[in-house]
Design goal:
The chain is α/β, with parallel strands linked by helices and about 725 residues long. It is about 40% helix and about 20% strand. It is elongated.
Length: about 725
């Protein structure tokens, strides 16, 4: 029989439709895509849903704190609250290290006539160098007040003209000023390459969050580094005979305002503090720009009841000036509300006038009015009266303010880095975990509850509510589109792909960081499973596909409230499994799950919590959290990590918990998401092999290296047959 092509007929139909409706064939073809949230008003904020849900959880914590603070009345009430704040901060940021010798020295001096600049290095921790410049006015006849200037997120730190304007005016008014480079800025780049003369990872905020992720993984907050640098900078000032120890102030803008707030809250030697363009309260921060880089976040900080107001209230009745601008991305409304709350503490302690808010109509940065308010504040608080006018003064060059011979500590003095300082703790936590693994049965028995608690996993309801979005039929399969309710207001769009040739197909849960397929052009892998008679459930977990991508801000928010993105996604996976089991047209006697890349992390957490998942395949998974903490360079975002997990459990422990269920591990990755070495694979999978051998199921553990030119049958068939 002669074949008749239908192509001309389709073209004719398309052209007829164009003539009738004005739609082009390209627009018609868009209706074949798998977008689920499109054209639904209720769901058009899919990319923001997770952040808004986390905001709502944070808001409950902030409301609990507000009710507690609002009930404080007497001086005794507030003093008890101050002790509580400081204890909590020490728990979050500490334990504070012992004070070792500063080993300070002056590397050079610049004489500018009215003042001199001494270039200073000191060690805030053994081997951890800090660079700074001490500005000394000439003509002093007695000890002078000193102001520690902590710097915001500028790569060249206090050498920038905007910072020098404040510093030089304070010096000309008779103040000693000590400006130091924060970690990751100025001459303290933590990932500096001497050949390239730059950081290998990016600017200041990138550096901060780069090592900050590793600190969170170890259950610490990298804010502790910045805080302790400030404490030791005060120690250095007090070692100088020119400084009056009873007249110490601190100020800084933006990230420097953050550091100022931390230091002034815990160090009683700070008489006067002027945080600038930072204080705004977490409620308004979360409503606007969200949490910023790592050192501006505390591990479980909101869960422990810490807000910006606590930094002010902890130091009452000492003089404090909050400096704000009305168009700052740090909310002016939040600044006003925070100061209003803190004023109750100052009033109760008989010093209401010692808390001042000054603001100017400007964006994020200094203004003349605000600088003059800072000068006047320090002149009154540190008892050095004089003219508060802001003057234009000649700036020093970067070369004049360079402290080290090369302009960077790493190739001048060497010493410790934020990464190397963490490594003893990484080794301690690793040893702690290894000790627990020695009694493997007991260790693995603890993992489900322990991983749930540390990750913040919340078990979902039995069967989630879903909305059927539509069905598209193709030659050999049907695509059903759904929207599932997740935790809170979160939503999970998902596809159920069903082969036409099989009546009750078995189910594969398929996870990638890109989420479900978005067009009818399926990947080779999904097509292979459909042709082999499997139904595929493919979701957009929160932060993927139509609900993503996630900013690091959202991940930092999650750890502030003692949750984690992997745990939230794990609960969404369990919801998907429960929905699949509710379908009578599917064979759910042995649901399998496949995760690619870092989606292996939430799948492992889900599989440990849901024992009914029959088999698991992880393709290109991260070898372990431990590798991330041990690697100076890593490419694993905060959204894929569980803060505080190290020392208690790791990814291999979760994998070991799956024994005797069939488990496929293919193409393990190191911290840079490159193929893991044979040594890493052997070390990290030792506990997994022991668990499977102990369960009499060594044959159910498959470890493979798979190349894309090899068949999918080679990759999956052995695992499916077990």
């Amino acid at each position: 029989m002669k074949k008749v092509s239908i192509f001309p007929t389709l073209v004719a139909v398309s052209l007829t439709l164009v003539a009738m409706t004005g739609f082009s064939p390209e627009i018609l073809s868009q209706e074949r895509d798998f977008a689920i949230l499109k054209r639904w008003l209720e769901w058009n904020d899919g990319t923001d849903r997770l952040q808004k849900h986390l905001n709502s959880l944070a808001d409950r914590m902030l409301e609990s704190r507000h009710q507690l603070v609002d009930a404080l009345r007497s001086p005794e009430d507030w003093k008890a609250r101050q002790r509580e704040i400081r204890t909590t901060l020490e728990h979050i940021l500490g334990p504070y290290p012992p004070k070792a010798p500063l080993n300070a020295r002056v590397t050079g001096t610049v004489n500018k006539g009215h003042f001199t600049v001494e270039k200073v290095v000191f060690q805030s921790r053994p081997g951890f160098w800090v660079t700074g410049c001490l500005f000394l006015p000439v003509g002093r006849t007695a000890q002078a007040p000193a102001v520690l200037n902590l710097i915001g997120h500028t790569d060249i730190a206090f050498r920038a003209p905007g910072y020098q304007q404040l510093i030089l005016n304070l010096v000309h008014k008779g103040f000693i000023v000590f400006a130091i480079d924060p970690v990751g800025q100025g001459e303290r780049l933590q990932y500096y390459d001497a050949a390239l003369k730059r950081s290998l990872v990016g600017g200041s905020t990138t550096e901060h969050s780069y090592f900050g992720r590793q600190y969170f993984l170890c259950g610490q907050s990298s804010a502790s580094l910045f805080l302790w640098d400030g404490v030791r900078a005060v120690d250095y000032l007090l070692s100088r005979p020119e400084v009056d120890p009873k007249r110490i102030g601190v100020t800084g803008i933006s990230g420097g305002g953050t550091q100022t707030s931390y230091l002034a809250a815990i160090d009683d030697r700070i008489l006067a503090a002027a945080p600038t363009c930072y204080i705004c309260g977490f409620r308004r921060l979360l409503e606007s720009i969200g949490p910023q880089d790592a050192e501006q976040n505390f591990l479980h900080g909101l869960d422990r009841g810490i807000d910006h107001g606590d930094f002010l209230e902890a130091r009452a009745p000492n003089p404090t000036l909050v400096v704000a601008t009305t168009r700052d991305f740090f909310s002016i409304q939040g600044a006003r509300e925070t100061v209003a709350e803190a004023r109750a503490a100052y009033k109760a302690l008989g010093a209401e006038d010692n808390l001042i808010l000054v603001e100017d109509d400007h964006d994020h940065g200094y203004t003349q009015r605000n600088r003059e308010a800072i000068y006047d504040f320090f002149q009154r608080s540190l008892l050095l009266p004089g003219d508060a006018a802001d003057r234009e003064l000649p700036y020093l060059t970067r070369e004049e303010l360079t402290v080290t011979p090369t302009g960077q500590l790493l190739d001048s003095l060497g010493g410790e880095t934020a990464f190397s300082l963490l490594q003893p703790e990484v080794r301690r936590l690793s040893s702690q975990l290894e000790a627990s693994r020695r009694n493997l049965t007991s260790h693995l028995r603890r993992i489900p509850a322990q991983s749930a608690e540390i990750s913040g996993y919340l078990a979902p309801d039995e069967v989630p509510a879903v909305v059927f979005r539509g069905r598209q039929k193709y030659a050999d399969y049907a695509a059903e589109m759904f929207l599932m309710k997740g935790e809170g207001t979160c939503i999970v769009p998902f596809l159920l792909l069903k082969p036409e040739a099989k009546k009750r197909p078995p189910v594969i849960l398929h996870l990638t960081s890109q989420g479900k397929p978005h067009t009818a052009a399926l990947s080779d892998e999904l097509s292979w499973f459909l042709k082999n008679g499997f139904a595929i459930l493919a979701p957009d977990l929160s932060g993927t596909g139509e609900t993503g991508p996630l900013s690091e801000s959202v991940a930092f928010l999650s750890l502030q409230i003692a949750r984690s993105i992997p745990a939230i996604r794990a609960a969404e996976i369990v919801r998907c499994l429960r929905y699949a089991r509710s379908r009578t047209d599917l064979d759910v006697s042995g649901i399998a799950a496949i995760a690619h890349g870092n989606m292996a992390i939430p799948l492992l957490h889900a599989a440990v919590q849901d024992g009914t998942l029959a088999r698991v395949a992880l393709i290109g998974p991260l070898a372990s959290f431990d590798r991330v903490a041990r690697s100076r360079f890593c490419d694993v975002p905060m959204e894929d990590l569980v803060a505080g997990a190290l020392g208690h459990y790791d990814l291999p422990d979760l994998e070991a918990c799956l024994a005797p269920r069939p488990l496929l591990l293919a193409n393990l990755k190191d911290a840079l998401r490159a193929p893991a070495s044979t040594e890493i694979v052997s070390r990290e999978l030792e506990v997994v092999r022991q668990a499977y051998a102990g369960a009499g199921a060594a044959q159910n553990l498959t470890v493979k290296t798979w190349e894309t030119f090899q068949s999918l049958e080679y990759l999956y068939q052995e695992w499916l047959d077990k």
